[in-house]
Amino acid sequence: MPKLPPLAAIRTFEAAGRLENFSRAAEELGLTQAAVSYQVRQLEDRLGRALFVRAKGRVRLSETGKRLLPAISGAFGAMGDAFAALGNDEADVLTISAMTTFGGTWLSARIGGFQLAYPDLAVRMLMNNDLVDFNATNVDVAIRVGLGGWSGLRANFLYRSHVTPICAPGFLNVNHIASPADLLNVDRLAPNDPWWAGWFAAAGVATVPPPQRSGIELDSQLQEASAVQSGYGIAMMTPLLWRVELDAGRLVQPFDTLFLPGTAHYLVHRENRVGVRKIERFREWLRVELAKDRHLLPEALWHPLP
């Protein structure tokens, strides 16, 4: 690619050529007339051709200048359009990063309501469990699990993490599950996960921790739900996220006991973006939607961690 002349000189020529007046070009660019003349002369010396015809204190484009100006004006116009489009895209698109399970269940089932409420905003949702680098991505908000208090980020508490055994109704019946202790002897997904030990302790089962055993470990509750609905095993899952399946009878929660891992779900974004309209809209919408489910969980789970 040929080396271009200095951009400042090209920009000065474009303004001077478009206006055919060095004084007006100086006003537009915030320069002195002498500076405009200098930049144009530098470009002419570089090209070895005159870009303007100077006569009686006035300037007009030379034939070379007339050939060059449309292409340069078009290039600056294209750059301006590109930056404007980028700015509009960033302003009109809300990019959400959500954990795989939360994003693929609760949020996916409701995000259409946010779109209907704010049709001027497009929504882009990314689902993964990786930590978000807000400085290296265009993610506006993230929904993550942790203890809160992340440096440089604003974290809005949503609800406390909670899990309990969930399975298919057929699995419950075939295995004659009547008490929490019965789960020690059935196929459990991720049977050696500390959550199981925590739940058995909360349920008052004396054998804590439960004996080690082999089993299947999957990456998310989405995969676990697929496995248990197919009749394989019972998994530690979050009932708030599976209300549709539980209400429809495709899944069952045998016991009311919940295990609280000691973490919580948060809506997270950079501190310096407090007040950005699309973020505030989503924050308020999320608060209202979660309030609709408040009756489904013990009141303590809706309060921040101590």
Automatic annotation (TrEMBL):
One of its GO terms (biological process) is DNA-templated transcription. GO terms for molecular function: DNA-binding transcription factor activity; sequence-specific DNA binding. Keywords: DNA-binding, Transcription, Transcription regulation. Residues 5-62 form the HTH lysR-type domain. The keyword Transcription applies. InterPro entries: LysR-type_TF_proteobact-type, LysR_HTH_N, LysR_subst-bd, WH-like_DNA-bd_sf, WH_DNA-bd_sf. The keyword DNA-binding applies. CDD domains: PBP2_GcdR_TrpI_HvrB_AmpR_like. Pfam families: HTH_1, LysR_substrate. It comes from the Bacteria. PANTHER family: HTH-TYPE TRANSCRIPTIONAL REGULATOR, HTH-TYPE TRANSCRIPTIONAL REGULATOR TRPI. Belongs to the LysR transcriptional regulatory family. This is LysR family transcriptional regulator.
